[in-house]
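User: Modeling request: complex.
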Amino acid sequence: MRNKLAIALGLTTCLLALAFHPAQGADKVKIGFVTTLTTGAGVIGRDMKDAVDLAVEHIGGKMAGLDVEILYEDDGFKPEIGKQKADKLVKSDDVDFVAGFIWSHVLLASRKSVLDAGKFLISSNAGPSQLAGKLCHENFFSTSWQNDQTPMAMGEVLNRKGVNKLYVMAPNYAAGKNMVAGVERTFAGEVVGKDMTKWGKDAQLDFSAELAKARASGADAIFVFYPGRAGSAFIKQYEQAGLVDEIPLYTVFTVDSISLPLLQKAGLKGVLGSLMTQFWAPDLDFPQNHKFVSAFREKHGRYPSFYAAQSYDTVFFIKSAVEAVDGNLEDMDGMRAAMAAADYPSVRGPYTYGNNHLPIQNFYLRQVAEDEAGNWTTRVVETVYTGHQDSYASECKM
Amino acid sequence: MDFTLVAAQFLNGLQLGVLLFLLAAGLTLVFGIMDCVNLAHGSLYMVGAFVCATVTLATGSFLLGVLAALPATFAIGVLVEVLVIRHLYQRDHLDQVLATFGLILVFDTLVHLIWGPEGLSFPLPQSLNGQVVLPGNVVFPVYRLLIIAGGLAVALAMWIVITRTRTGMLVRAGASNPRLVNALGINIRALFTLVFGAGAALAGLAGLLIAPITEASIGMGNEILIVAFVVIIIGGIGSVRGAFIAAIIVGLIDTLGRSFLDGAMKLVLSNQAAETAAPAVSAMLIYILMAAILYFRPQGLFPPRVR
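Assistant: Request completed. Predicted assembly structure:
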């Protein structure tokens, strides 16, 4: 009896919610932004949110004369919650764009909800191989990269440095697998050891066993991918284990402006001089990048991370689409064509889109260094790839 | 197989085990003696790490950080017991789970408000940041060796307190028959508060010991609490001795699984299959062990002899 009552009440509430759903006028551009705002990874989400807020401020809160409304949602670092939030954004909020997504597994879980609803899906970070290849979609775009590209550039760097034996470590999830596949694709030497560690909300952060294996492996370089807080934990332990002078460290998406202040505070000098590859750097010489980096530093007192850079780009990217159709948000074809042209000022400089709507762009070698004020940041050393396209584009039938 | 690697991994496993024991000891006492499920035990682990990190960063001394965090977690433990947990002893386990889960959310949010979302990282003093070369040419971080030594010392001290002192006797008596102990004129409530505070301080100790290796971060205790529950289930709920032995077993199995399972699986599987399966299986090993224990010996390896 009580169950029936509960069901009846629930249904009534749903119907009421439908009946009172506010009428949608095209007087606003609504953008859903899914990221991680809680858990230890919440610090990444904060950087992305700060960048989006800054971008909205820089465009005066308007796109083609329409007000911009950003709805932030927290995925809690879990694919199933990310999907629920994506469902909510397209069904009850009726947003025009769903953007964000730090994690590849969260993006993969959420893609169907957004694309089936006929909305644009824009990744501001995650670049799983599936979405670049077989699962590519006309309404999916990325303002970041495909996961494999950055480690592929690193494999190239390792070859140039004459590394023969490499030890590889990454978390065991969609992006971790892509990162390992990427470096293995271009690295010409031998991978003497590989660890895929537990990831997610209860990620493994103590790498004692793996570091002992690396030491015993006789490798002459170690390659790791540990985004977020796992990165600074790894680097501390790498230094505590005394490997700094024994096996040089090469990273992707591990040492960033989120981990560097923490590492500096902790006085872990072993990270100074370590090398990484990336599509962007705070010191890239483009007017949009100067504007972004200086305004972000002024407002928040810290360097923006690459997550922030991609999120800042996301807003200008959407703006270029909305303005191309004069604010007519019904014109999906017009917006799609405008986005595919990548005709907006990106912080990384001009780039183009491949058939799979992933960027064809440069990748740079960066090194950790001190800035004039003594803050630890990264500097561009050289360009590794010019106009690089991911390896899955050929699998995309588009 | 390489001797130095096996030896290093054995020590790594021991270090993880000792750390798990510090966390599990308080949990098993509260669960076993007061019959109360305390999910917020991990929050005290987190608080220990944050307080130690804050004091260390402010004063530049890790020792001061430790000396500040231990009484702080003890005091917070006592406060939590008096305000919340005390009212839960007579309720059923579901109420306890709900209330202490609420406490987790409160602690996580408080930490977020006070310290922000990014967590705290602090350096080890130079003297602890190095490595030692042990006999057999095993290179091992000094700090991890210190954790092993400190943890074993605490375990010994607990054993002495519980089996050789009057307080320990009262704790054991209170566990088997609280009413009778009360009737004999012992303030059982104060005793429970003391035990809860001590458990909290032990959790705080575990948290502050791990913080220089990883960092102090929100929710760090919730992750390891699951493993601590596995430990007390394997060891037998309420048994400190069981918690100690189970913690060492779990630490060793987890570490050795991560170290050697992929190599072992490559003997029977293709390289690629082993690479895919090994991380998943090694993450499951301790749960497989728990399931086996629950099937063959549901009371755990060393259930307390009382009641």
